[in-house]
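Customer escalation, tier 2.

The customer says the design service returned an amino acid string that "doesn't look like it belongs to this structure." They asked us to rerun it and document both sides in this ticket. The original structure tokens are below, unchanged.
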């Protein structure tokens, strides 16, 4: 079990139990006391749990359940297609872009229609869509690593080492929820990889249907203020305002 897997496991366990002691984590995951304390400190800094004396306490008010990539396609399909089409208009010929995992970003991959483009992704379904468009001037790259079966995306040290040497003009990300200005997703490891790609991009766009506004998920991805803009479908004024407080909104 690597660091990111351990972090996810710790957070799930803490959320299930409410409170867990350091000694219990040491025994359960066969790691040192010092490693656990470092883990808890890092997860506390990310707002994923509350580090307390001798252990950790859950600060989650929701029941965590991740939905598989293929099961998300039937949800808010019209809104997602609208968002994907608007997002595609932000791309220019010759761009170097990164597309993160997600069903809305997969729809973006479907509607992309450019002759000269370089696209990097760590999501296998998105790579397979883009591969059909490959040409002498349309380049597609899949980052390898450890695959998460739920989202069919690659994460971990191998993925992150590849990203370390890459730079992008634009990044297009998905998210499972936005609350209090925080964009959230389902996996610590996936969030870390997308965060690294975001930090290596000049412009950054979150593709988000309005049903996710006000919802929480497992791991913090970024703050809305870290983004260039959020691309949403047209929605009511309250939901627009929830986004506009933090960043420019494109609708």
């Amino acid at each position: 079990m690597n660091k990111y897997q351990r972090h996810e496991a710790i957070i799930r366990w803490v959320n299930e139990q409410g409170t867990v002691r350091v000694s219990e984590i040491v025994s359960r995951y066969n790691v040192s006391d010092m490693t656990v304390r470092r883990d808890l400190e890092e997860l506390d800094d990310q707002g994923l749990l509350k580090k307390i004396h001798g252990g950790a306490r859950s600060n989650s008010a929701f029941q965590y359940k991740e939905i598989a990539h293929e099961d998300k396609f039937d949800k808010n399909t019209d809104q997602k297609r609208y968002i994907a089409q608007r997002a595609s208009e932000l791309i220019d010929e010759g761009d170097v872009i990164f597309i993160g995992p997600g069903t809305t970003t997969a729809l973006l991959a479907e509607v992309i229609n450019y002759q000269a483009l370089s696209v990097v992704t760590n999501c296998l379904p998105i790579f397979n869509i883009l591969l059909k468009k490959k040409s002498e001037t349309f380049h597609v790259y899949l980052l390898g690593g450890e695959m998460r079966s739920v989202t069919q995306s690659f994460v971990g040290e191998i993925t992150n080492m590849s990203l370390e040497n890459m730079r992008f003009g634009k990044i297009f990300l998905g998210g499972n929820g936005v609350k209090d200005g925080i964009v959230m997703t389902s996996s610590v490891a996936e969030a870390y990889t997308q965060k690294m790609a975001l930090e290596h991009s000049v412009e950054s766009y979150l593709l988000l249907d309005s049903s996710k506004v006000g919802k929480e998920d497992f791991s913090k991805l970024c703050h809305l203020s870290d983004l260039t803009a959020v691309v949403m479908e047209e929605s009511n004024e309250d939901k627009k305002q929830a986004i506009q407080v933090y960043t420019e909104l494109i609708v």
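Tier 2 assessment: The sequence is consistent with the input. Residues 236-251 have pLDDT under 50 and may be disordered. Residues 3-17 form the longest helix (15 residues). Sent an explanation to the customer and offered a walkthrough call.
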